[in-house]
Design goal:
7 strands
Length: 159
């Protein structure tokens, strides 16, 4: 169902991205990297957070960790991730397949600057065994995401 929402999103926006569907699970960064034959950093992981007034998505390089201080400095509140059942309810995508496309509800999308250094990244495509290849610039344009810096600095050097 969720891959269908992503496919429709791409069709509606007249975007020609191939959704890569695999037999293997891509539900974690490590599994996705292994299935795609790429470094874990190239997986664009999408994380769902709750702010006081809204739910948001943050997309970051696969091996990045959110820096709680940077997050609080930017959003003016403590980082609080959504629970798995809330993630599906808010995004329409299962945990392990969450992506910033074909969302059930409109959400503000933030892209961590850790993604900018790569030629291509691989966000999920709505299921636990799918992905799509795109440039960070395409990811930003498609999602209308805002570039922010909320991950630990060491992820900028790893990769």
């Amino acid at each position: 169902m969720s891959v269908a929402a992503v496919r429709k999103f791409f069709e509606d926006k007249k975007l020609n991205f191939e959704i890569i569907e695999m037999e293997e699970s891509t539900a974690t960064v490590e599994l996705a990297a292994q299935a795609l034959g790429v470094a874990p950093a190239l997986i664009a992981k999408t994380m769902a957070f709750r702010l006081k007034e809204e739910n948001i998505l943050i997309v970051a390089q696969g091996d990045a960790r959110v820096d709680n201080r940077k997050y609080k400095d930017y959003f003016k509140e403590k980082a609080k991730m959504l629970k798995p059942d809330e993630v599906f309810e808010v995004t329409g995508h299962p945990v392990g397949g969450v992506c910033p496309f074909g969302l059930k509800n409109p959400l503000n999308i933030y892209l961590d600057i850790s993604l900018k250094k790569f030629e291509y990244v691989y966000p999920a495509a709505g299921s636990r065994n799918s992905a799509v290849k795109m440039t960070p610039a395409e990811l930003q344009e498609i999602t209308e995401g805002k570039w922010i810096d909320v991950c630990k600095d060491n992820c900028l050097e790893n990769s």
